Amino acid sequence: MVIERTLSIVKPDGVQKNLIGEVYRRFEQAGLRIVAARMMHLTQAQAEGFYAVHRERPFYRDLVRYMTSGPVIVQVLEGENAIEKHREVMGATDPKKAARGTIRADLAASIEENVCHGSDAPDTARNEIAYFFSQSDLCPRTR
Ligand code: ATP
Ligand code: MG
User: Fold this and answer.
1) In this structure, what are the phi and psi dihedrals at residue 15, rounded to the nearest 5 degrees?
2) For the segment 119-133, what is each residue's pLDDT rounded down to a tens digit?
3) Within 6 Å (CB) of ligand 1, which residues are found?
């Protein structure tokens, strides 16, 4: 079994709706361990950089505005097959298409305001973790 790490964000709508604990509960129930976490209010430059892969997409400006509209909680999750497991727990981008029982199906308002972010592959996970955390921010579970 491969132990992976992935970057996770509770987005501004999730924080506004007081869903931090609910989202964390679902991660922990799925066997994902939080090994780093921080609340921050993204600057325009931080949000633009984070979503740079989407800069040609029609929703990019709105996405940056949304992601800077309030504080977020950024965390690193660790576990077996963590990248895919995390995305399963989140559900599809569009809550209308997300499987029942997923975070987005149960808690998200729209395809944009969809409560959470999760890395989509090992290379993006590595880059996204490094975007927010230095090596010394990560706390390996020693028990
Ligand atoms: P994330 O990267 O946030 O985990 P994702 O991988 O499911 O979500 P992406 O295609 O990477 O989805 O899109 C990034 C984010 O941009 C989405 O989570 C959503 O907030 C927003 N977004 C995606 N598609 C649309 C759209 N068609 N209209 C508006 N916003 C969108
Ligand atoms: Mg994505």
Assistant:
1) -65, -45
2) 999 999 999 999 999
3) 59, 63, 93, 111-112, 114, 117-118, 120
Tell me the average pLDDT across 25-34.
98
112 CA distance to ligand 2 middle (Å): 11
User: Has 86 been annotated as catalytic?
Assistant: no
Nearest to 51 by CA among 43, 63, 39, 41: 63
**Residue with token string 């992976």:** 4
**Helix intervals (H) in 30-81:** 44-50, 60-67
The CA distances from residue 65 to 27, 43, 107, in Å, are 27, 10, 21
Task: Give SS3 for 143.
Answer: coil
Q: Is the pLDDT of residue 70 over 90?
A: yes
* 8 Å CB contact between 120 and 43: no
Q: Which residue of the set 41, 54, 86, 117 is catalytic?
A: 117
Long-range contacts for 133-140 (Cβ within 8 Å, ≥24 apart)? 133/36, 133/38, 133/74, 133/76, 137/36, 137/38, 138/5, 138/35, 138/36, 138/76, 139/35, 139/36, 140/35
Indicate left, alpha or beta for 115 from its phi (over 0: left) and psi (-120 to 50: alpha).
Answer: left
Residue with token string 């020693």: 142
